[in-house]
Protein 1
Amino acid sequence: MHPLDANRLHLTRRSLFGKTALGVGGAALGGLLTREGFAAQAPDAMAPALPHFAPKAKRVIYLLQNGAPSHVDLFDHKPMLKKMHGTQIPDSIVVGKRFSTMTGGQTARPVLGEISNFSRHGRSGATVSDFLPHTAAMADELCFIKSLHTTQVNHAPAITFFMTGSEQAGRPAIGSWLSYGLGSDAEDMPAFVVMTSRDKEASCGQIFYDFYWGSGFLPSKYQGVKFRGSGDPVLYLSNPDGMSRAVKRTILDGIAGFNQMKLRDFGDPEIATRIAQYEMAYKMQTSVPELTDFSDEPKHILDMYGPDVMRQGSYAYNCLMARRLAERGVRFVQLMHAGWDQHRNLNTQLKIQCTDTDAPSAALVKDLKQRGLLEDTLVIWGGEFGRTPFLQGKIEDTKQWGRDHHPYAFTVWMAGGGVKPGMTYGESDEFGFEVAKDGVHVHDFQATLMHLLGIDHERFTFRFQGRQFRLTDVHGSVVKPVLA
């Protein structure tokens, strides 16, 4: 028997897969190589050639307000609510609609007028609540979408839908798609950074699940890197006692050598991830302490972000961190703030939430603009759905007024990054209940975000389990009227 034929008879399944995967491994490793070695996160060699066309935005800062801010109390002024306050909302409006279990069995659904006062602001005449004076003052910088709608009535699947394009966990987050396809402009920072915060009163028990920033079926090097809200932002960046940076470098070089040997043999992209993450961690030992040192920030800038800006883990602190990350070329910053779930405390907690988040959100936009970064940074502010125009609870029990989850129409705003400033797109009906004009589905919103980054959402796919997957699944259209 010919020696080659004999060798084929002894070829195991494991060996076959290991050998044939070399091409994939080499491509993944190639994505790590730059003029400075393995450190930078260049676009993956297996990803489509991106961008598809000239982008308006280079990076995104997503200010996700977990729990769902009440659109009818903050942005979407509806005089009908005040006019019908305390009376039953027409059955024709709510028939056949799903709500959470908190009001699913509630037969009395009295209309609840807004608990704040609205005014028009700027040349655009945008309606904004007096709970948000700093946001109102920059209304002409913002693009309001008042006709967003989604499919989910509970927090986790609704947030997952916004972040991944699917209600079920397991798909890549937006930031993972972008870091996979576009890479990073940062030499010593991850392409995708996540920070979380919550209201000081801990008024709701929402959990920040890791799959909100997971990489799904993409290689895990593209998942978000979560910065902690206390202590070292990233664990294990500091060298152990007695280990110098030079010694650490020698150890990493040795480990990288072994990992590269394994990568050559089996081509497992997770080995490439390990190489990349070791190198990134080494560079972050220097870059992260400098990033988190606010001593170079002028007092008037710190004051603009509000009194909590120096408290690590606060929303204000994270907003300033987001600006500093944007300056350093981070592609996607996902800032998540919980505390908007006002089922029984609307009369107290909504204003507290607005006070804590209004100034930092506005400061971030103004700070980016004065540094020349806003024009190519897309800032997004919004929740996973809105709140019902009818009351959860009893109308006479004012201390426990609340609003339930509402997926049928709600508001987000965007700034910079190629969207039209000073405009409002879409309308809800006279109750703020359902879309009346120019509806924007979650997938439309995601398609528009991708378009602003120079990506055709229908062409940017990843093959997994025999199917080409994309962020917008098989749906979505770019909302062209909001494009500058």
Protein 2
Amino acid sequence: MKMLVLISGTPGAGKSTLTEKLAEEFGLKRIFASGIMRQIKEEAKLDVERAQKGNGFWESEQGKQLTMERLKDSYYDLELDRRLLEIAEKEEKAIFDSRMMAWLYKGKDAFRIWLDASEQTRAERIAKRDNISVEEAKKAIQERFDADAKIYKKLYNVDIKSDRSPFDLVLKTDRYNEEEVFEIVKLALKRFFKL
């Protein structure tokens, strides 16, 4: 049975953490879009196993520079999305931490999750993770999400800020810890995939 899980959401909502927990629970291959994007930027051969999660990559100087390049040149996003779709077609059991896969992948064998949280909660999480001030984190996540929204509107005419139509589950994570979010999503996946 094919089992694909597509996780998207706002920066700092808990996508990468949830991706890792669900991958371990269900034996899914982890696919981190940020790691693949870095390989594309470095013109490295695609190696899904080495395409690790971002851990604050997009808020780093290197990540900000890549975002600026993405705003000017669509190559990076189009190539990333092509590779992600190729992986989705090939893999039987995988979980994707990717902003756009829920909109791009048309297969019915995927469960699509959107994670969100208030700006304050997300900024506090990122500030703690990256050892920066909450105000710096707010600025970084707002700039990143605005840039992503602009890129995806231009490339696919998708409004990532308000369109939740492709998602099977939309979860606001402010009031839940990592384990509670995991338990909620785990139950939804078991029901969806009849496990």
